[in-house]
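My current task is to audit a protein record that another person submitted. I need someone to confirm that the token line plausibly describes how this chain folds. Take the sequence as given and treat only the tokens as open to question. This is what I was given:
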Amino acid sequence: MKSLRVLVIDDEKLIRWSFEKQLESKGYEVISAESAEEGLELFKRKGADLIFLDNHMSGMFGIELIPLLRAVDESVGIVFMTAFGTIDMAVEAMKGGASEYVSKPFNFDEINVIIDGFKKKLSLDNELQVFRRQQKEEFTFQNIIHASPKITEIITISKKLAQTDATSILILGESGTGKDVFARSIHNESKRKDKPFVTIVCSSLPDALLESELYGHEKGAFTGAVAMKKGLFEIAEGGTVFLDEIGEINQEVQVKLLNVLENRMVRRVGGSRDIQIDVRIIAATNRNLKEAVEKKTFRKDLYYRLKVFQFSLPPLKERPEDVPVLLEYFLMFFNQQFSKKIQGIDEEAKELLVNYNWPGNVRELRNVAERAVILESGEVLKKDCLPMEIRQEELVSEPEWGAGLSEYSVLVDLNKGPISLDDMEKEVLQKALLMTNRNQTKASKLLGISRDTLRYKKKKYKI
């Protein structure tokens, strides 16, 4: 880490000399100026991490210089010093942009405590910047691993949404399909990317606490509210709020959320004034909200306000072509994490993975890949490292297509009277699914139809 550069602006030569002697002995770089005007020019030319600023100097007062220093570099630390300090002067200095306040005379133990605190804050700020940069690099549309045309189409739509100022987006899809990845990618590729992205899982908190988290609360609003707290909508000002599992909130919370969407204002719990906000709201759910509206468990007006822009992420079982490319990515990721050198996966294991139903979607595939990398001792991942529920797929015998279904089952007995073709088709579908342990890929292959056709007929016959 580079040496901390400290700028001292004070008209007393002894003060400047003391700072140089004390701080340079600790390895800090110290530069100094005897007036506000000289200090400003020096700061513009050389910069500084931390400024110790006297107030009473000839020419411009230190308190007048603070906003000018902030205009050059808003992140610089400013410690305001004066021998004529009052509480009012301290408040004024802090309002003007000072970070700290110290009264003369002071000892360098005080100064060292201030510098140590600033260094910790600087370190945390740097870590936060690195984390945010990594988040932006990780969550972009370019980094969404896929081979499915369906996902390509959704990415195209999402990119367009990211570039608009659409304030409400609804993402539907089963758990584990990547709704949060798309939400973050939309934020990171939008004009709001440099503002906060905050997430709350609506089902993770009791209703009363959920309101406090979303809208904030005033001091004394309820037992335990010992101080004012800003809500996520205020914290995310200018950015994005991601409301995951939106289908789990109750009617009372739904009403308040609708008001936020309509009026772009929030009121803290226990508060009496409305606070204007500018945020994009992305909501996600694995529930069928349309069905919830029909059952009157979810408000129709909120549903339609959320779905100004809406898209659905298909489950992994409907896009088996994504399994190999996702698996390759996860193998590379976990190879690095666990210092392994797995080069690939054998065909038998790959076939089991592609044909598996993936009830947990991409999240489950990630977990399976992590487990397999840990267990595999060779350079090629084999089926023995896969969980039992996936390996059981191979226990289901698959007949030759030419054999047909007749040798495995007897269809509707014609002697019992007239039957419809629909009844016969339904039974054939049921038998095929039974024989393949409900594996849609194998069943569709057995019947000589596409998986889409199979899914349509399952829905038609309510199988």
